[in-house]
Design a protein that fits this description.
Helix content is 40%, strand content 18%. By secondary structure, the chain is of the alpha/beta class. Helix 1 runs antiparallel to helix 4 (73-82). It is elongated, with a radius of gyration of 21 Å.
Amino acid sequence: MTEQKRSNRRRQTIPLQKKFGQHHLVRGSICAPLVDFLEPGERLVVEIGPGGGVLTQELVMAGARVIAVEIDLAWAVALTSRLVSSPIGVCVGDATEVHWQSLPPGTLVTGNLPFNVSTVLIEQLLPHWQRVPRAAFLVQKEVGDRLLAGPGDAAYGALSVLTAARARVSRLGRVSRGSFRPPPKVDGVFVGLELARPVLEEAEMQSFTATVRLSFSQRRKQLRNALAAGWGREAASAVLDVAGIEPRWRAEELSLDQFLQLHRAYRGAHRL
């Protein structure tokens, strides 16, 4: 038996943990859209959730130096054994605890993200545009739709607005559920993010984020009523008037620019 076959057999005997949302890709060629978008060259790439190392191998073949962050010790050990001669480092830990601010500038980030942490990870990464210029992920279609949605789309929400405030998002391709082991209940989608300076100074982004989240907190309600839950009805009406936004609209109808108008009107009223 060849070493490759022995390695494959060892990987097949490692159980997949439902609590980690593990659905591993079965072929490296599936990952081409991610690798093409990243253009890793000889850059450092942080890969989240490498699992069996299908994407890891593609990154290495493209010349990347990879740091793989794997929460499952058994899979981390298997990956280390499989790619022992490759330029990779394997860290056992939770990717939501990565100190992105400590990475060298120019680092790229990628991974097949579990559904239960995908939005958290992306939101944590977005402020670090000075360290990470590009990131590319495989996420469940629902998450991809939310990242890419615009005003009026059914999937448009706080994540859509807050991502657009910090990055340009591209749909890189769709991945059928049959491309995973075990197959999930839904298809996946590749998304690429080009991180950039946010639309407001960082000191204002926390307040802007709060305004966006409040606006979508009761998305079936008119915007005036949703904002009144946090600001009071009189203040909500006054801010909407200053911003030039119709109180009867709903949050899903507002563009990023209109949310910025709303934020500035609120900040102006708050300073008074």
